[in-house]
Amino acid sequence: QGQLVESGGGVVQPGGSLRLSCAASGFRFSDFGMHWVRQAPGKGLEWVTLIWYKGSSYIDSVKGRFTISRDNSKNMLYLQMNSLRIEDTAVYFCARMNYYNMDVWGIGTTVTVSS
Amino acid sequence: QSALTQPASVSGSPGQSITISCTGTSSDVGAYDYVSWYQQHPSKAPKLIIFDVSKRPSGVSNRFSASKSGDTASLTISGLQAEDEADYHCCSYSGGDTWVFGGGTKLTVL
């Protein structure tokens, strides 16, 4: 079925940077697209970005600031977050793309942007 | 990329049925048969319970059913059980390799 484990969250000041990682296991990582989804405190889920064989896509609010990447040789997914804003504060989940849904999720890593 | 609209909360008694609506636009829910639903217990990872509008993944109870009409999708949970108490999130493909979620609905089993 597969397992995803995120890491790299923490507290950062506005304008700062952070790199999130997602370790995949139990499935052929290179065969699947991968999403990052976030959840601000007390709010719903928000799709952030996708990487798959066609390339990558982003929600408008993070374009030019966030970069998704992957290393298939290490079964790792990454999210480089620059110019962080207070509104980027959230739990960040990685999720496996299965056609048009997300069928395997990690437990999330918390990012807090605060001065 | 506006969020889909879900009721903030719904409630029901054990054994009853409840329905959660998810309203989008002709650019997302109305345009594609790619609506999915996720169940999320507190501080847990979301779990896929419905995909492609009305399909259930293997292992998901048949008490969960879903449909779509126009720009609105719906999730129905029948025979409510205490373990169903959770947050439920709808999601739709919105074109251009982007997705949009709803604001989430908190289900309380009375």
Compact overview of the structure:
The complex is a heterodimer of chains A (115) and B (110). With 115 residues, chain A is mostly beta strands.
Order of helices and strands of chain B: EEEEEEEEE
Helix-strand topology string of chain A: EEEEEEEEEEE
Our estimate of the beta-strand percent of chain B is 35-45%
Biggest pleated sheet of chain B: 6 strands, mixed
Taking all Cα atoms into account, the compactness measure Rg of chain A is: 13 Å
Explain this structure.
The complex is a heterodimer of chains A (115) and B (110). Chain A is an all-beta fold and 115 residues long. Chain A has no helices and 11 strands. In chain A, the strands form 2 sheets. In chain A, strands 2, 4, 5, 6, 9, 10 and 11 form a 7-stranded mixed β-sheet that branches. The model of chain A has no long low-confidence stretch (mean pLDDT 97). Chain B contains no helices and 9 strands. Chain B is globular, with a radius of gyration of 13 Å. Classes of the chains: A mainly beta (115), B mainly beta (110). Chains A and B meet through strand 5, strand 9 and strand 10 of A and strand 3, strand 7 and strand 8 of B.
Q: What's the topology here?
A:
The complex is a heterodimer of chains A (115) and B (110).
Chain A (H helix, E strand, L loop, with lengths): L2 E5 L2 E3 L5 E8 L8 E6 L5 E8 L2 E4 L7 E6 L4 E6 L8 E9 L2 E5 L3 E5 L2
Parallel strand pairs in A: 2-11
Antiparallel strand pairs in A: 1-3, 3-8, 4-5, 4-9, 5-6, 7-8, 9-10, 9-11
Chain B lengths: L8 E4 L5 E6 L11 E6 L6 E4 L13 E6 L2 E6 L8 E8 L5 E3 L3 E5 L1
Parallel strand pairs in B: 1-9
Antiparallel strand pairs in B: 2-6, 3-4, 3-7, 5-6, 7-8, 7-9
Keywords:
heterodimer; A: 115 residues; seven-stranded mixed beta sheet; four-stranded antiparallel beta sheet; 0% helix; B: mainly beta
